[in-house]
Amino acid sequence: VQLHIQMWRGLKNISGYDENLNTIRTYQVCNVFESSQNNWLLTTFIARRGAQRIYVEMRFTVRDCSSIPRVPGSCKETFNLYYYETDSVIATKGTAFWMEAPYLKVDTIAADESFSQVDFGGRLMKVNTEVRSFGPLSKNGFYLAFQDYGACMSLLSVRVFYKKCPSVVQNFAIFPETMTGAESTSLVIARGMCIPNSEEVDVPIKLYCNGDGDWMVPIGSCTCKAGFEPDNGNVCRACPPGTFKSSQGTGLCLQCPSNSRSTSEAATICVCRNGYYRADGEQPDMPCTSVPSGPRNVISIVNETSVTLEWHSPRETGSRDDVVYNIICKKCQADRRSCSHCDDNVEFQPEQLGLTESRVFISNLLAHTLYTFEIQAVNGVTNKSPYPAQHVSIDITTNQAAPSIVPIMHQVSSTMKSITLSWPQPEQPNGIILDYELRYYEKELSEVNSTQVRSQTNTARVDGLRPGTMYVMQVRARTVAGFGKYSSKMCFQTLTDDDYKSELREQLPLIAGSAAAGVVFIVSLVAISIVCTYNKEAVYSDKLQHYSTGRGSPGMKIYIDPFTYEDPNEAVREFAKEIDVSTVKIEEVIGAGEFGEVYKGRLKLPGKREIYVAIKTLKAGYSEKQRRDFLSEASIMGQFDHPNIIRLEGVVTKSRPVMIVTEFMENGALDSFLRQNDGQFTVIQLVGMLRGIAAGMKYLSEMNYVHRDLAARNILVNSNLVCKVSDFGLSRYLQEDTSDPTYTSSLGGKIPVRWTSPEAIAYRKFTSASDVWSYGIVMWEVMSFGERPYWDMSNQDVINAIEQDYRLPPPMDCPTALHQLMLDCWQKDRNARPRFTDIVSTLDKLIRNPTSLKAVASIPTIPSQPLLDRSIPDFTTFSSVEDWLAAVKMSQYRDNFLSSGFTSLQLVTQMTSEDLLRIGVTLAGHQKKILNSIQSMHLQMSQCQTGEV
Questions:
Q1: Is residue 817 marked as binding?
Q2: Which residues participate directly in catalysis (predicted)?
Q3: Alpha-carbon gap, residue 382 to 279, rounded angstroms
């Protein structure tokens, strides 16, 4: 600020010298021999210009009082600095204030160095420079005043200034020129704005201007947008053609990858050239690749109703290493004019789609049938191409085989000594039917007394029979490959003498043919109605009597126990992906585990859409062992990749808290989900859930992995009702070098008795067979909609019952086929239990044949397998409707019954399904449960009344 002295009193404006002996104008005063000095200098009005704090720099000299001879005691070596704040010009020569009252004192100014008479004589004046500040100021301007009260001094110059932070570009943001604050310690916030072609990274963007006019404490920043790169740290320049930048940041533009190009500036991605593509999930910096050519040199080996196909890999892989093969199976007519896709029961090993090896074994084909197999070569970009996958085709015809079973026989006619039968052709002839063999014997005799009759057609007349006698008959078909199996046993009876005579008397000439036909029809129906089945078989079509003992397929990935690593952290790094904690957002607590709380959250990985996740955290204060045990589950999960196994998204180990991040399953644990939806799912839906669990366990068992804690509570369900196996805290590795791989526990820890096999309870031996036992319990939980296995029995009672060969009974409305499969899973001899491969196959057959699920299991009077009986409560002991509802675990409907007038058990026994619906019992499962209880209660009450009479 240019300073002008407006007026002065007592000081002289004279010429003098500075320290360099340059001539200058100064204000001097040296009235030290006069008492009561009060000399003033007053500046003109100084405009504030927005400053809140003003700085004054003064250059002056002061003579040492002790160097002045006979100086009085009033001599001073200091002077005072004042200021007066005002909105307008108020001081003139006539109205100046020559007193302290209207001014605010800034400070008393003392010299650091003074000069003496000797110095003065030698013209060596010692100049002092002092700076003082004052504030805060709020008015338009101010005056400065200097007061001398007895010093010998010269005021050489006065500089008035304020401080500011200059305009600056920092972190790709522009910050404007900013005045300092009212105090020297003040921090003034300056808001920044991103430079062109940049965008905010963290908000808000701001710097702080301190009292010295320096910028400090940067918060937030900007960075160059995608398609722009930094230049000299303060400019974002567009990527030139032929380059790209896919994301924001300080990185530089990159050259377009192979087989891609960009033709304009500021490209964020290079477009693939014609015929080249990027797979889903591949980053923009990845090269574009093409689809593979077709497989080569296919070889087929036909063995009856199976075929092995082998081929050479494609000549061109499209510059990718993820080539896999799909097998398309078509069944064709002999003339090859029409083909259709193969049936669902055709099996492919190791799989039909996504084959990584150039070999496949196809079984369950129909005999004597023409097939066309297309072997497609696909890779990660095949689905991006508008053209179908390249493939090679091969036609094969399966060999003739023995025909399938004849489904049923019909009686055409009968006499006293003969029966005429007919039957349809087998569903699978498996070649040309040469003839049929009919076997029969009297029902009262044994099968060793049977007689065989051959027929070239699907009808036969059996002669030489005894009148009025019941015969057991079976039939089978024959091709060049041999006989098929005999059909089920059916019973047919010849006419008695009386029946035959009666039939003759009723034959009138006009209606003889009609009457005879009618009698034959009626007799046929009667005969069919008394069909007897001697060999009872399980309803599910292929009872599991022979289980193969082979291990996983060649090339199958094998599970590696993380505890076998010298450093368990190495297993975490190998099998679990580290996630940046900034991509994880925790939202709410959904549960608690052994090591800490479980949260619902979101995960947003770069280049991928945001997804919901479950987040397990490790509580504070953990030991190193607890940390290893916590992360071991991630090391285990990270090795699995199957749609029915919970998916690990990654881990957070480089910040606190330590986290395991998995996919989020909307419907939670299977047991609680079923209890909440009791009776809401069909049998087919429940079997579908069981099939998913079995498929997941099949995958684990093929990896030589034992779960040890398979239960409905450890199965999670997503929004599409897909069930996934979870909770791998108890699992252990199966030793590969033994024929019967086991894990022997030495921990002595708690075992879930209700789900654990006898050998695992008794000897701590866990195998895939013990997991099969647990799976049978899970089946029971699912079919009972989450009921507790073995109800309220103690653990010791459960162990004792199992040792005595007792097993759980079928849940209400459970199909016979499913309960039989449960019993197979609960075989005492673990080698007799089905493998998970067999279980999946069985469930697939049940799903394809829903009629096999209609037969509902019941507890027979003398079962071949002793079953536990949860006895029906004694309803006569209940005194109220509340007691009865509590006994059948339906207490939630107490108010519905009482408010609708059903206040006594006598009234309840008269209720119908319409009554239940009317009072608000809408769930089908609950209706059935309550109605069954009402019927039992009605029966007990009726028996009591009969006894009293």
A1: no
A2: 709 (proton acceptor)
A3: 8
User: Residue 291: what residue type?
Assistant: V
Whole-angstrom Cα Rg for the chain = 49
The pair of three-digit structure tokens given for residue 908, joined into one six-digit string:
């309840």
Got the DSSP string for 850-895? GGGG-SBP---SS-SS-B---PPP-GGG--SHHHHHHHTT-GGGHH
On whether the CB atoms of residues 248 and 222 are closer than 8 A, the answer is no
d(CA 768, CA 772): 6
State the pLDDT at residue 39. 87
User: What residues are annotated to the active site?
Assistant: 709
Sign of CA pseudo-dihedral 93, 98, 104, 110: positive
598 annotated binding-site participant: yes
Residue 666 annotated as part of some ligand binding site = no
Residue appearing with tokens 């993380």? 562
Return d(Cα 647, Cα 725) in angstroms, integer: 10
Distance in angstroms (rounded) separating the CA atoms of residues 717 and 786: 13
Which residues touch 438 (CB under 8 Å, ≥6 apart)? 421, 452, 453, 454, 455, 460, 462, 473, 474, 475
Which pair of structure tokens corresponds to residue 121?
A: 């004589």
- Name the percent of the chain lying above pLDDT 90: 43
- Across 626-644, average pLDDT: 90
Beta strands in 242-295 (DSSP E): 243-244, 254-255, 260-261, 271-272
How far apart (Å, rounded) are the C-alpha atoms in residues 841 and 912?
41
> Which residues are registered as beta bridge partners of 505?
none
Q: Structure tokens of 408?
A: 């049923």
CA 585 – CA 278 distance, rounded (Å):
30
Is 591 annotated to bind a ligand? Reply is yes
* pLDDT of residue 244 exceeding 60: yes
DSSP symbols for 414-470: E-SS-EEEE-PPPS---S---EEEEEEEETTS-GGG-EEEEESSSEEEE-SPPTT-E
pLDDT tens digits along 518-541:
444 444 433 433 333 333 333 323
Cβ-Cβ contacts under 8 Å for 609 (sequence gap 6 or more): none
Distance CA 375, CA 359 (A): 10
Is 175 marked within a binding site?
A: no
* Pairing relationship of beta strands 324-332 and 339-341 according to DSSP bridges: antiparallel
Q: Does residue 381 sit in helix, strand or coil?
A: coil
Q: What is the pTM of this model?
A: 0.41
DSSP state of 740: S
